[in-house]
Automatic annotation (TrEMBL):
<protein>
    <recommendedName>
        <fullName>BTB domain-containing protein</fullName>
    </recommendedName>
</protein>
<dbReference type="InterPro" id="IPR000210">
    <property type="entry name" value="BTB/POZ_dom"/>
</dbReference>
<dbReference type="InterPro" id="IPR011705">
    <property type="entry name" value="BACK"/>
</dbReference>
<dbReference type="InterPro" id="IPR011333">
    <property type="entry name" value="SKP1/BTB/POZ_sf"/>
</dbReference>
<dbReference type="Pfam" id="PF07707">
    <property type="entry name" value="BACK"/>
</dbReference>
<dbReference type="InterPro" id="IPR051481">
    <property type="entry name" value="BTB-POZ/Galectin-3-binding"/>
</dbReference>
<dbReference type="Pfam" id="PF00651">
    <property type="entry name" value="BTB"/>
</dbReference>
<feature type="domain" description="BTB">
    <location>
        <begin position="78"/>
        <end position="148"/>
    </location>
</feature>
Amino acid sequence: MSLSEFDSIHVPLEPWDIDDNGDNLLLIDPIHQRMDAQETVPQPAPAPTTDMEGDNVLRDEDNFIQNVSQFYNQESLSDILLVVGDQKYYGHKFVLAKSSEVFRTMLYDQRYIQAGLPEVELSESLECQQYFDRFLRFLYTAEININIDSAVGILCLADKYNVSSLKSLCTKYMVINTRSPKVKNALQWYSWAKALNLEDLIDQCSKTIAWNTDLILGMPEWFDMEFDFVSDLLCNSQLVVQEEYSLFKALMSWLLHDQRQEKLVENSKDLLPMIRYSQMLVKQLYEIETTAREEEYALCREVLLDLVSKAYRFRSLCPSQLDLEVSFKDMCYLPRNYITLTVDTVRMQNTLRFGIQVDVKTYVGPVPSEKREGEWKITYRKNQELWTLQIYCHESAMINGEAQIQASVVIYNEQDHVIHVDAAPSHICTRANNLSMNFHVPKPEEAKTMAVLIKPIPK
């Protein structure tokens, strides 16, 4: 999938430095960072460190790095020539081996044919070839210039040659640059994060993708998404999307796209059950039922009609689930973060709301309805950057004296892009038991509005 230009705003985070044009971030190892700090801030001469035997430990980190870095790609003292594509680099086995276990084995283990050879050809992808010089320089200097375009190539080289410090720095850089609303970066790097098992990057990409689902469903690139991506998306309960029906329509467009006709039956059986039909309105279910009988849907008709039937069963049995002892705890019966469930919208800087109760309404019980007859009250409080929401349930919102809900807040910036989502665990509200929700807003200076969602859920 080809993606267009990226957001050029970068947030420096230690141990990173940023250059003047704001395009590249300079990643540095902690040892090099300490060296730079000593150069920029006048410091008194450090007292020698004394060990238990009374000996003093003296350090010369800056000269050590400088002495090593001067040999980068220099023929002087070189004992190995690295061939990467049509480029050749002078190397020094000790420098390569000290930073990379892969190079150590390759160059010193006599069981490998490369050991002892004066010239070694490395097989790299075109993307990695393009940035191999930056990768190699890092082994000598402990620093690297990186940007959105070069991040994947450098990360793959760090992973292939097991340079853990560089891999960690790349991952941190990519995590920062996939925070919402940087959706295109998250889309571009998600598959790489999974392939390399980078949990922090997977988590951040997943959040950004989930919070911007409506935007992604409207992209031309949606039709080019891989099966695994679509499957992961549909499994995610934290999607911020207008409603489940819009997610269903986007999935059908993906399934029926010309390039997937050969796998329509297989894909339908795997993906259509991931849609939460229980969270649709009756008129939407009827629309699906009617449409499924058209010729275009013949290959997935049986699957669709069966799923719609299960949704009707949920709507029929759920109001009496206690009497019938029926359980609806599966994920397919739980709502996502639907914008249609917004009960209140707050301007983040509007202090007039603090301490005042606001009356809101939801539908009654866990079966979705257009009727909003369940009454609630919300109180907003803020202590520095800590927000507290108190949600109180009225009798009209209860069934058998209680209402089980999940509550979420969706934070938007000035451009109405989602920048943060917070959620409270499911809670049973009664007249004597309200829901208290505490959360911090990252980068409060960017927060414009907050949407509060109350989601009735089944037991």
